[in-house]
Amino acid sequence: MIIVTNNPMVKEQINQQKVIDFVEGSYGDVLNYVKQRVIDERLYLLSHPLSGSIKPNETYYKTIFLTETNSQSIDLESLEYMESAITVYEKFIKNKQRPNWSLGVLQDFAFVDFYIAQSTLDRIGGDTCSTTCY
């Protein structure tokens, strides 16, 4: 399993036995990075790129779960999900830019994304925290 995130809380709290690929950038950067990995490395999505019912312009952090395969072809379903997510992201960002959030608000967003990631790992079946979970 590969975890792609731009959330420092996920990077710090998720069990170190998991492969965490940290993206320095925005929610959109995470989506574009995952799309490219689906294409280049033939990875499959384990979680939906728009999970959590949070609009892309209403948060900064995103965590997406992928898995490796031995396939020589691109998983078209994963690619379609990523392309659709990027389209939705671009639509929301175009219609309503994000405000300049305070550190406290960003920490709240980090916690929400972390909680969704932790719940996803629980459903998939795996230990989540390397230290004390919230």
UniProtKB/TrEMBL annotation:
<dbReference type="InterPro" id="IPR047735">
    <property type="entry name" value="GrdX-like"/>
</dbReference>
<protein>
    <submittedName>
        <fullName>GrdX family protein</fullName>
    </submittedName>
</protein>
